[in-house]
Amino acid sequence: MIDRFYTTFFQISRLIYSGDKGAGTMSQVGSMKAHIQQADNETKEQTASMFTLSHIVWCPLDTDIEIGDQIVATGTYFVRGKRENNIGANQHLELYVEQV
User: Fold this and answer.
1) Cα–Cα distance between 59 and 22 in angstroms, integer?
2) With 5 labelled, which of 26, 60, 61, 73 sits at a CA distance of 20 to 30 A?
3) pLDDT band, residue 24 (cuts 50/70/90)
4) What percent of the chain has pLDDT over 70?
5) Phi and psi dihedrals of 72, rounded to 5?
6) 3-state secondary structure at position 4
7) Residue boundaries of the structural domains of the chain
8) What pTM value is reported for the model?
């Protein structure tokens, strides 16, 4: 049901560490189709992101995405929060993201 709104294609990148020096690079780890919309002021207040350009992204529950990942579509966003909504017919992940 909710998946009919998944109309935006995103590339997912994750900071991957290699070696002992702690240096990491952003590496593409997957992609997803999702829905994105700008967060309202109440959501921004609850997620401590009042002074950023914050959005909410809905995507399938089985999406391999973690807090700290970067997603890119028409803009670039960092995942700052993640919540599973796995009750009922509209099961999905809800991602709280900041536009870079």
Assistant:
1) 31
2) 26
3) confident
4) 89
5) -130, 125
6) helix
7) 2-99
8) 0.85
